[in-house]
Amino acid sequence: MVKIKYEYLFLVTIFIISTCGLIYELVAGTLASYLLGDSVTQFSLIIGIYLFSMGIGSYVSKFFNSNNLISRFVEIEILIGLVGGLSAPLLFLIFNKVDFFEFYLYFIVFIIGCLVGLEIPILMIILKDKFKFNTLVSNVFTFDYIGALLASILFPVFFIPYLGLIETSIVFGIVNIGTGLLMCYILQKEIKNVRFLKVKGFFSLSILVIAFIFSSKILSFSEKNLYGENIVFSTTTKHQRIVLTHERKNFNLYLNNNLQFSTFDEYRYHEMLVHPAMSFADKVDNVLILGGGDGLAAREILKYKEVKTITLVDLDAEMTNLFKENNLFTKMNSFSMQNKKVEIINQDAFVWINKNANKKYDVVIVDFPDPSNFSLGKLYTTSFYNSLQQILSEKAVIVVQSTSPFFAPKSFWCVNKTIQSEFKNVYPYHVYLPSFGEWGFCLTTNFNFDKKVHRRIEDLKFYDYSFEKYTQFSKDMITTDVEVNKLNNQKLVAYFNKEWGSY
Question: Of 63, 318, 336, 436, which is most buried with the most CB atoms under 10 A?
Fold first, then answer.
């Protein structure tokens, strides 16, 4: 009976602790990406530090006294649960309060990794006299890998969209502590000072339960301090954190902590994004928007009555649904997402283009987020622009959002040079946005055109159809020392993170 009890208890424990351990790592990586950007760098550093610290924990495990290992294991479970569970709320709270935030982030990851590294070696020492060595090793690593697989699948599919980062870390902290307490009760005859362990476990558990109850307030408090504005809406989707704030008469939309637009001046951006291309195109029957899940570009396009169809391709279905159904957002885009001319497709644009080359578009509005990571950077590569050629009509006009030529000149001209490598003509231009500073675009075609205005809208707030004056760049916005952005090198992401990182 004892053997059966040990077998099932410890195999389930291995499964649980491996799941919890990977969740803490994923929480730290995702949180770092949200707050610091450059997801590839952050995940790489966190994985490296985590694995290194697990190695240290495994090494230290050999110094533990073998006479009282179950007690030590329970204490480790309680400590991991407390540190790992509180990691996300603590990091959110201190983000804009401390200098060198990265130090605290990596230090917490290091501590969790060391503790996680202790678990499996100690368990194997506990069980070494209960099972044959080959059975022990195979069982331990089988359940360890199964737990890791489950965590990696459920984290992006369930935990992030339905719980959020703070709640996820707290829940798995509770699971870790609960595992330790369960062992206290099942194996209490074999554990020294079991009552004291139970007190520590329930005390730690109560801290996490209280943190979970107030998790939404913790997030609201930290985000209010972060943005310095009143938060009127926030949600976490499978792809990003969406926050809408209100300041005076204006609303500001943030995606993963990055300002996307302000209602104070977004009309400048979207008029300059849409109307030059729409005015120059020979015809505008079929228009494609890549990105633009807020419906603001679609709002501008719908001002042209001759438009027959608008296809909007945006990855995040929850984002497009918000701007289609939520009253706060539909007012901003004048209900454009509900217009019968607009077809919304929630797919990765890179994949969608290669599978939908049957329809040709007269105007293409490329309104992707800035290339802060490789998943976004691929949408600015030669491969993407080459694929885009397949869906263009003979005299199509394309415009690409191209970041700031002032704050990130290498990034801007890298986009320009990359487009030049695939298209016949590129016309870079820029506009001043009070919320962002100078912002750039690239208008491109495969044919020579005389920039004749074929159509115009009379009630625009900003754009006056004098396109040429927006194509002049001062010396401090020009650089030629850039490379083409290819799928296998992603030079643009390196330029972008280096330039914007200084701000």
Answer: 336
Q: What angle do CA 35, 174, 120 make, to 5 degrees?
A: 90
Q: Provide the residue count of the chain.
A: 503
Listed residue (405, 408, 436) closest to 252, CA to CA: 436
- Side chain identity at residue 304, one-letter code: Y
DSSP string across 202-244 = HHHHHHHHHHHHTHHHHHHHHHHHHH-SEEEEEEE-SS-EEEE
38, 265, 314, 367: the catalytic one is 367
Contact in structure between 332 and 294 (CB atoms under 8 Å): yes
How far is residue 365's CA from residue 359's CA, in Å, rounded to a whole number? 16
* Catalytic status, residue 285: no
What is the pTM assigned to this prediction?
0.76
Give dist(CA 24, CA 83) in Å, integer: 10
The letter for the amino acid at 489 is N
Element (H, E) at 243: strand 241-247
Element (H, E) at 254: strand 250-255
End-to-end CA distance of the chain: 64
Per-residue pLDDT 10s for the chain (503 aa) are 444 455 567 778 888 888 998 999 999 988 887 777 666 778 889 999 999 999 999 999 888 876 778 888 889 999 999 999 999 999 988 887 888 888 999 999 999 999 999 988 887 887 776 667 677 677 777 888 888 898 889 888 888 878 888 999 999 999 999 988 988 888 877 787 888 889 999 999 999 999 999 988 888 888 777 777 788 888 888 778 888 888 888 899 988 878 889 999 999 999 999 999 999 999 999 999 999 999 999 999 999 999 999 999 999 999 999 999 999 899 999 999 999 999 999 999 998 998 876 789 999 999 999 988 888 889 999 999 999 999 999 899 999 999 999 999 999 999 999 999 999 999 999 999 999 999 999 999 988 888 888 899 988 999 999 999 999 999 999 998 899 999 888 899 889 988 887 76
Question: 90 in helix, strand or coil?
Answer: helix
